[in-house]
From TrEMBL:
The active site is at residue 187. Belongs to the LDH/MDH superfamily. MDH type 2 family. It catalyses: (S)-malate + NAD(+) = oxaloacetate + NADH + H(+). This is Malate dehydrogenase. Pfam families: Ldh_1_C (PF02866), Ldh_1_N (PF00056). It comes from Trichoplusia ni.
Length: 331
């Protein structure tokens, strides 16, 4: 058995963490031979609830769970971690403007960036789930200058999984038969779910998804809208936001980053190098491949006029969010 690795989950008393912690502690993320020491961060008023989560983790009797540290102190939570799931964030309250939500969350991620910088391992891999995820990841990285900026990512894997599932259902194949669907841009309603390079295995033969579906209007409108609005549809039905699927997506993202994506592209929000004419230095979701703990943007794809418009639109939103966030950080 390997030595245990330290992994932190923030927002550990919340609903996404409630599913995510089991996945991490059962070996679904770091593999069946890798013990984990879980650090659980939440805010002070949630320590009672967190104690219940700690009890349940013990009651799961998981062989890979080497220990649990519940805390309300970021510097304790981030000490020596190799992986950080930053799930905790301020939820939108009634009457709160988007701007106020951004300001509240940017402050949290500034403070957590500073704490990571001080006490985490320099090779820590950070996944931001808490919204606005892309801009939170950017701010976190900015305040952790001793950690490479490639180590900060934002989650768009839930959007990718939603898109893949929609396409598989439309074609009538199992979900794993569809690959290389892309989420571009922001984890928001401006995101661009793009099936133009996706491929599908139908009865043993590989086909392009646009050829298999043969309905350009569907791929440009109903498909895009369904994926963009899936989060709202889940809230309308469940009266709570996506949690089971969000936790699964966070596990997928971190597992692929640590263990490799194989022959599949995966979408991750990463600090943009300007690829595909996107704004530099915003956290933009691209198709990437991962190997040996590193991600690489898939290059050389053809961008249609429609795609260009969609990429520019979501890029513009990210540039605006970045400016607003930097203004908040000045205070
Ligand atoms: P919950 O409200 O159930 O849990 C959030 C937890 O974070 C709470 O326990 C809260 O006390 C804690 N928290 C707040 N401030 C904190 C801080 N400064 N440090 C540590 N913990 C803190 O929300 P949940 O449903 O778990 O969602 C968490 C976040 O994920 C939200 O921001 C949500 O918008 C975001 N999502 C992001 C998705 C993505 O694809 N990137 C999809 C799912 C989800 O909507």
């Amino acid at each position: 058995m390997a030595e245990p690795i330290r992994v932190v989950v923030t927002g550990a008393a919340g609903q996404i963490a409630y599913s995510l912690l089991y996945q991490i502690a059962s070996g679904a993320v770091f593999g069946p031979n890798q013990p984990v020491y879980l650090h659980l961060l939440d805010i002070a008023p949630m320590m009672g609830v967190l104690e219940g989560v700690v009890m349940e983790l013990a009651d799961c009797a998981l062989p890979l769970l080497a220990g649990v540290l519940p805390t309300a102190k970021p510097e304790e939570a981030f000490k020596d971690v190799v992986a950080a799931f930053l799930v905790g964030a301020m939820p939108r309250k009634e009457g709160m403007e988007r701007k106020d939500l951004l300001a509240a969350n940017v402050r949290i991620f500034k403070e957590q960036g500073q704490a990571l910088d001080k006490v985490a391992r320099k090779d820590v891999k950070v996944l931001v789930v808490g919204n606005p995820a892309n801009t939170n990841a950017l701010i976190c990285s900015k305040y952790a200058p001793s950690i490479p900026k490639e180590n900060f990512t934002a989650m768009t894997r839930l959007d990718q999984n939603r898109a893949q599932s929609q396409l598989a259902a439309k074609i009538g194949v199992p979900v794993q038969n569809v690959k290389n669907v892309i989420i571009w841009g922001n984890h928001s309603s401006t995101q661009f779910p793009d099936a133009s390079n996706a491929v599908v295995n139908v009865g043993g033969a590989e086909k392009s998804v646009p050829a298999a579906i043969n309905d350009d209007a569907y791929l440009k409108s109903a498909f895009v809208n369904t994926v963009q609005k899936r989060g709202a549809a889940v809230i309308a039905a469940r009266k709570m936001s996506s949690a089971l699927s969000a936790a699964k997506a966070a596990s997928d993202h971190m597992r692929d980053w640590f263990l490799g994506s194989g022959d599949r592209w995966v979408s991750m929000g990463v600090v943009s190098d300007g690829s595909y004419g996107t704004p530099r230095d915003v956290v933009f979701s691209f198709p990437v491949t991962t190997a040996n703990g590193k991600w690489k943007i898939v290059q050389g794809l053809t961008i249609s006029d429609f795609a260009r418009q969609m990429l520019d639109n979501t890029g513009k939103e990210l540039s605006e969010e970045k400016q607003e966030a930097l203004d908040v950080c000045k205070d």
